[in-house]
Backbone:
């Protein structure tokens, strides 16, 4: 993390680095942090990584809970610029999600369009949960996503 002087502007990347450092030092989980600010763990992590903007009251709570400098609050409320690399990642967990979309993406699209019509699932009006499901053959990861259906307009 770079040294922030009065002449330097704090960035979302700086805020993320401070959150990650404070989280590690406090020994908190994302669920702990989310509970303290009243949001879901998925949304909290995404916003902490700069992919969503915190509502002002949640930014204020995050700054307080994590012991961050006051100027972090305004940075957390800034609209994100969602730029990510399009190359397939090498991290095994993230790669598996790419694999799922690669294998099942056309199936998901076909089933959504069969049930709803010609359109998409929103990733803006959206929520997601990740839970652990005990299983005698080995615990399972359950990912549930719910996004608003957005039909295409004919014009």
Residues:
């Amino acid at each position: 993390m770079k040294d922030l002087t009065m002449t330097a502007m704090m960035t979302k990347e700086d805020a993320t680095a401070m959150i990650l450092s404070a989280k590690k030092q406090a020994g908190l989980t994302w669920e702990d942090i989310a509970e303290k600010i009243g949001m879901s763990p998925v949304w909290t992590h995404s916003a902490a990584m700069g992919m969503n903007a915190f509502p002002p009251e949640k930014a204020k709570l995050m700054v307080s809970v994590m012991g961050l400098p006051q100027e972090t609050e305004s940075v957390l409320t800034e609209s994100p610029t969602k730029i990510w690399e399009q190359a397939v990642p090498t991290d095994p967990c993230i790669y598996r999600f790419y694999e799922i979309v690669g294998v099942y993406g056309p199936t998901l699209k076909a089933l959504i369009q069969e049930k709803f019509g010609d359109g998409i699932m929103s990733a803006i009006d959206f929520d997601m949960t990740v839970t652990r499901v005990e299983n005698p053959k080995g615990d399972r990861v359950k990912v549930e996503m719910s996004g608003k259906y957005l039909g295409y307009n004919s014009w």
